[in-house]
């Protein structure tokens, strides 16, 4: 009788490992979303900075978007000139500096300045991450790996909420400084990995005339020779058309740069808006009837867990369902649920019944999916 041999465990291709490491930038996005509103409602935070008005609170929470939206307009040009990995490293380093300023702030103005610096870094690396992953991935895994960043964003949401849930009872500034300081450590890891481990994108190398380095990069990434040949053929074809367009007129060049900037801004918005709806979750859950801050943090973390779990099948079947269909149907459903949440939340202030609050909570859980 023949005894079957145990199957060997094979390590994943190196481009998969590189994509996973690059996707840790999504954790930073989710972490900031998960911690910023919970920490601003902690007693240790308000004891140090005072109780901000609703306008100031909104400025604290959303200030990172201001600088991120502006710098994302230039992210494409910077990554084209510096290279994908160096652009990611630059953005991650700026994010680490900004998070460090936030964690060590003693006055509210310094805290806001740290968030603005972090936003500059996030604007640089967030859209570049997706471009880099698409460029290094084999064609048969490109959709899955490109959507991996969404899973990391939702994982960061979970980490952020429950790190605040774990520190909310600590009677010192450590309760809000630690969740912010975590972001600095992860950003430094991404900086070092981008500079010293992640190979440069073969497409970027070829486009900038580093033909000899293309094959070496593909070998480091574990991309097949056939994939490399197809890459070169496609890039030669697109490079010829690009030269024709750039050599035409000044107006054509301006239109090209304008479209490039708008594309990067739209990419950042698509990646970012899904998680930012959790920014004011603790306050919204309090309005829905959860008075305890601990219970509010916990209830805010449960939708984050559901969103994280829901992103798994979305990533696995991204290529089969299709981008257009998922965007159209998903967007329509989200719009309808958001309208329902708004109407139910409005009724809470004008009725004594518990039904609108329960319906608002249930709708938020459904929306997170």
Element layout with pairings:
Layout: H1 14-22, H2 24-40, H3 43-49, H4 54-82, H5 84-103, H6 108-136, H7 142-146, H8 148-167, H9 174-196, H10 202-207, H11 211-221, H12 225-246, H13 250-276, H14 281-287, H15 293-316, H16 318-321, H17 323-348, H18 355-367
Keywords: Membrane, Transmembrane, Transmembrane helix
Protein name: Major facilitator superfamily (MFS) profile domain-containing protein
Subcellular location: Membrane
The whole-angstrom Rg is 23 Å
Could you please say which CATH topology of one domain applies here?
Answer: Growth Hormone, Chain: A
Strand residue percentage = under 5%
Helix content: over 70%
Chain-averaged pLDDT: 78
Shape, per Cα inertia axes: globular
Structural class: mainly alpha
Distance between the termini: 51 Å
CATH architecture of one domain: Up-down Bundle
Element order, helices and strands?
HHHHHHHHHHHHHHHHHH
What CATH first level of one domain would be assigned? Mainly Alpha
Keywords: Membrane, Transmembrane, Transmembrane helix
Family: Belongs to the major facilitator superfamily. Sugar transporter (TC 2.A.1.1) family.
Protein name: Major facilitator superfamily (MFS) profile domain-containing protein
Subcellular location: Membrane
């Amino acid at each position: 009788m023949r005894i079957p041999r145990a199957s060997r465990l094979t390590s994943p291709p190196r481009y998969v490992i590189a994509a996973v490491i690059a996707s840790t930038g999504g954790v930073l996005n989710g972490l900031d979303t998960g911690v910023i509103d919970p920490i601003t409602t902690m007693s240790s935070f308000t004891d140090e900075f005072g109780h901000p008005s609703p306008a100031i609170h909104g400025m604290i929470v959303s200030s990172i978007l201001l600088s991120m939206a502006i710098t994302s307009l230039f992210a494409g040009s910077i990554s084209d000139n510096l290279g994908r990995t160096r652009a990611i490293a630059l953005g991650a380093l700026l994010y680490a500096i900004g998070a460090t300023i936030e964690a060590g702030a003693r006055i509210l103005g310094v805290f806001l300045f740290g968030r603005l610096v972090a936003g500059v870094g996030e604007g640089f690396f967030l859209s570049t991450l997706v471009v880099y992953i698409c460029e290094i991935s084999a064609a048969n895994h490109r959709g899955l790996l490109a959507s991996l960043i969404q899973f990391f964003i939702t994982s960061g949401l979970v980490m952020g909420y429950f790190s605040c849930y774990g520190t909310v009872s600590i009677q010192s500034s450590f309760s809000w400084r630690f969740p912010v300081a975590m972001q600095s450590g992860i950003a430094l890891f991404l900086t070092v990995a981008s500079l010293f481990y992640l190979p440069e994108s073969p497409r970027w190398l070829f486009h900038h005339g580093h033909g000899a380095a293309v094959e070496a990069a593909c070998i480091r990434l574990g991309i097949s020779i056939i994939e490399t040949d197809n890459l070169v053929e496609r890039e030669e074809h697109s490079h010829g058309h690009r030269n024709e367009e750039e050599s035409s007129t000044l107006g054509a060049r301006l239109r090209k740069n304008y479209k490039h900037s708008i594309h990067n801004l739209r990419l950042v918005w698509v990646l970012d808006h899904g998680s930012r709806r959790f920014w004011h979750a603790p306050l919204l859950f309090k309005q829905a009837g959860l008075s305890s801050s601990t219970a509010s943090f916990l209830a805010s973390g449960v939708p984050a867990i559901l969103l994280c779990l829901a992103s798994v099948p979305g990533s696995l079947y991204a290529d089969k369902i299709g981008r257009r269909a998922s965007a159209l149907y998903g967007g329509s459903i989200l719009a309808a649920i958001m309208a329902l949440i708004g109407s139910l939340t409005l009724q809470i202030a004008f009725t004594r019944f518990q039904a609108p609050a329960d319906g608002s909570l249930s709708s938020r859980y459904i929306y997170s999916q």
